[in-house]
Amino acid sequence: MDLTSLEQRATAELAACADEAALRAWNTTYFGKQGEVVQAVAKLKEVPPAEKPAYSKEVNRIKVALAAAYEAALAQVKEKTLEQSLTQHALDVTLPGRRAPRGRLHVATKVMREIRAIFADMGFQVYRSREVEDDRTNFELLNMPPHHPARDMWDTFHTTTPGVILRTHTSPGQIHVMRQFAPNPVRAVLPGMCYRHEAVSTRSEIQFEQVEGLAIGPNVTMADLKGTITAFARRLFGEDRQVRIRSSYFPFTEPSIEVDIDWPKDDPNADRLTKGTGWLEIMGAGMVHPTVLRNGGYDPEKVSGFAFGMGPQRIAMLLHAIDDIRLFWQNDLRFLQQF
Ligand code: FA5
Fold first, then answer.
1. φ and ψ at 72, to 5 degrees?
2. What is the β-pairing status of strands 186-195 and 125-126?
3. 3-class DSSP state for residue 332?
């Protein structure tokens, strides 16, 4: 076997390999099971003894040299492929990143938190009550037996389970709070969603939030109620806003009042929103009816209490001069992004 011509041929063919596949084929030709270099090594057996040392030395030199040349060529080709991929699919790391869209709190959430904070400062704890109620707690225990005409004030969404309804106000929460804390004094606010089968208008939605307030203890009076509401209204709306207290009727309070806030006269929507009166009703309130106190587990001879229920959406409308309550739950970003 002519080792010199084998080396020359193999070297020339290796240099001609353009890619990794060609290199691997070259490797099979020379270093595979039947490869030429492998066969040249095997030939050592047949070489006459006198020539053996020289042949052995030469064939090993060629074997090592070709193997090294192959490894070097393979490494070079891999390097080239990587470089090509880097330049062809170039990544510009200096480009500014995409901004993550930043969310914000819904205006209703903000107002709700403000209201809660003011009452928290006055020592009211926040109590969560269920949105799905039974007729008994939403009406009966609040002094409205079936067929009581006062039920007409709250047109109700019924579930398919008889007697299970969506609460029409947060007042049934009063019963849950009382039953948990009686006979101890309590001061709590109950925020949450309410539902009414109503004609939707600029001031009324079928879904809206309320914040209920309840204070029970020895010698709680109407003066405490008026003081609490006035302090609250002044903190939320400012010292110069007017608060009006009117007598009213709720079956679960006696006496009952309604609280209005004056609407800025220079607002072109004032007439529509206040039905021409200049006042917007923000809450109903009163002294807890003795029957309701008893239903809650208290002795009306020993304690008295006041309660109120307000609508944060109406309050948000006042604070931000929003002229349509329907905007709150329409998820229109043009509206939501203003707050
Ligand atoms: C009640 O719901 C009584 N439970 C309030 C109460 C509590 C009285 C405790 C006495 C003692 P009224 O139906 O007026 O009352 O609702 C109270 C407030 O909820 C209203 O002043 C208003 O701000 C808000 N509200 C009522 N209906 C809607 C509606 N459809 N859309 C938006 N807000 C409403």
1. -65, -45
2. parallel
3. coil
Q: What is the mean pLDDT of residues 196-215?
A: 94
Residue 79 CA to ligand 1 center (angstroms) comes to 75
**Ligand 1 close to Cβ of residue 322 (< 6 A):** no
Q: What does the pLDDT read at residue 1?
A: 58
Tell me which residue of 172, 192, 190, 195 sits closest to 252, measured CA to CA. 172
pLDDT of residue 154: 81
The string over 36-64, giving b where at least 16 C-beta atoms fall within 10 Å of a residue's C-beta and e elsewhere, is bbeebbeeeeeeeeeeeeebeeebeebbe
Check: CB of residue 217 under 8 Å from CB of residue 338.
Answer: no
Residue written as tokens 């009452």?
A: 119
Distance in angstroms (rounded) separating the CA atoms of residues 149 and 33 = 102
Please calculate the CA angle 26-28-29 and round it to the nearest 5 degrees. Answer: 65
Ligand 1 center to 202 CA (angstroms): 15
**Which atom of ligand 1 is nearest the CA belonging to 314?**
23
Residue 166's beta-bridge partner residues? 132
Q: Residue 297: its pLDDT value, please?
A: 97
pLDDT in tens, 147-167: 888 887 788 899 999 999 999
Q: Which of 271, 79, 297 is nearest to 178 (CA)?
A: 297
Is residue 272's pLDDT more than 90? no
Instruction: Give the closest residue to 261 by CA, choosing from 310, 331, 227, 221.
Output: 310
Instruction: Give the CB-side neighbour count of residue 4, counting CA atoms within 13 A.
Output: 0
DSSP 239-280: TTS-EEEEEEEETTEEEEEEEEEEPPTT-TTHHHHTTTSSEE
